[in-house]
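Figure 6 in text form: structure in, sequence out.
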């Protein structure tokens, strides 16, 4: 933008200078030509009384003296054909002046001035002189150089002014861009200093207002999540007590495990909301989890429901430990989301396989079922054809991205969905 403004001002200045300096340069040349012509005409007009009344000798001496003083050739053509002074041939202009008409004519080497002298007893005499081209253009080149230098100075001055003006516009825009990037990087305390034209100051004020509003909304979100946590503590405690009172130890353990998973999910939600509201003091990417332990635990939990619905579960775990760069509760939530989709979107009795393998860039958790495949509604966040929230795959995707990995969705050649959660090692952004 700064360069474009400078080019615009320079182009405008150049057009203005061309519009003024070119006519001025032509005027300078015209004035120089007229000045040389008038000076030469005035010199030869002084010969008119002498040519009209004096004898030949006097005329010759006067002409030679004028030619020596002016540096221009001067000729006098008498009616009897005598030529005094510079011996020049009779030109068309001399012939015309002999009829009583004075005039000025252009020559290849300059300008010809002829003056008719009437009153001589023997006829009309003619005084002729030639103004050389050097006299006609004397001082024109220097004047043009002065005008060109003046134009160059004006262009440089306009360029300096344009650059200064562009700085006053570009600096606030650059600062606004920097502040917007800082806000995008979760530095919500960043503020723009209103500067520049009124429009840019208004944009800076609007950006600051937006940042302040985002802080308020995030603070309200954190408070609402904290309030939700407080509201859920009592039901969770009641569920835990109910689980402990179950007569069957296996059922009690299973329900208690579900309550623990729910409590971890709530705690993770609170922690995540607080981290988004307030920038963390430590690097959140430093959290780690053992993928082998988490995947094995979650598959064991879902195996009970799989048995109740007639599903065959195949578990293929690589030898652990397999550390990944994602907190344990987030990894557990991601695995639960993938397994929950199997139960939600496949008919009862559909078998599925969970495989945990090592990779060069970390580990891969693959869930392969023999169902109808992934519904199109699950591809988009917040959309589902099964009556759910549609956020299951998004939870898994965010967990993968937090560790530097990704979530791959596909289909088996024989049918069924293949979902692969690729997780990066600890310390990878």
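Output sequence:
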């Amino acid at each position: 933008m700064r360069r474009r403004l400078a080019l615009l001002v320079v182009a405008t200045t150049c057009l203005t200078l061309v519009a003024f300096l070119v006519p001025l340069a032509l005027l300078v040349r015209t004035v120089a030509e007229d000045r040389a012509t008038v000076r030469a005409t005035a010199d030869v007009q002084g010969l008119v009384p002498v040519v009209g009344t004096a004898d030949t000798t006097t005329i010759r001496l006067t002409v030679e003296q004028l030619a020596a003083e002016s540096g221009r050739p001067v000729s006098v053509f008498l009616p009897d054909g005598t030529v005094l002074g510079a011996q020049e041939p009779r030109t068309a202009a001399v012939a015309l002046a002999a009829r009583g008409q004075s005039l000025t004519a252009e020559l290849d080497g300059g300008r010809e001035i002829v003056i008719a002298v009437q009153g001589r007893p023997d006829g009309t005499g003619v005084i002729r002189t030639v103004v050389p081209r050097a006299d006609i253009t004397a001082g024109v080149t220097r004047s043009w150089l002065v005008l060109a230098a003046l134009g160059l100075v004006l262009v440089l001055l306009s360029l300096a002014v344009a650059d200064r003006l562009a700085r006053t516009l570009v600096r606030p825009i650059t600062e606004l861009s920097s502040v917007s990037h800082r806000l995008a990087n979760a530095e919500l305390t960043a503020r723009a200093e209103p500067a520049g034209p009124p429009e840019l100051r208004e944009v800076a004020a609007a950006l600051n207002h937006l940042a302040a509003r985002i802080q308020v909304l995030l603070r309200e979100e954190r408070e609402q999540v904290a309030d939700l946590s407080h509201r859920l503590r009592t039901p969770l405690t009641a569920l835990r007590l109910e689980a402990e009172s179950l007569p069957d130890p296996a059922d009690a353990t299973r329900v208690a495990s579900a309550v623990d998973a729910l409590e971890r999910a709530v705690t993770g939600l609170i922690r995540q909301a607080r981290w988004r509201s307030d920038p963390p003091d430590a690097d959140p990417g430093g959290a780690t989890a053992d993928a082998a332990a988490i995947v094995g635990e979650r598959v064991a939990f879902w195996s009970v429901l799989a048995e109740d619905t007639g599903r065959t579960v195949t578990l293929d775990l690589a030898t652990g430990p397999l550390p990944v760069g994602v907190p344990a509760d987030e990894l557990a939530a991601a695995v639960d989301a993938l397994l929950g989709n199997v139960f939600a979107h496949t008919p009862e009795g559909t078998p599925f396989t969970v495989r945990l393998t090592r990779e060069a860039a970390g580990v891969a958790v693959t869930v392969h079922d023999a169902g109808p495949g992934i519904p199109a509604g699950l591809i988009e966040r917040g959309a589902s054809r099964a009556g759910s929230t549609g956020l299951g795959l998004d939870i898994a995707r965010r967990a993968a991205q937090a560790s530097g990995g990704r979530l791959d969705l596909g289909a088996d050649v024989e049918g069924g969905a293949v979902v692969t959660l690729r997780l990066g090692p600890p310390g990878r952004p």
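Caption detail: Residues 95 and 331 are 114 Å apart (CA to CA).
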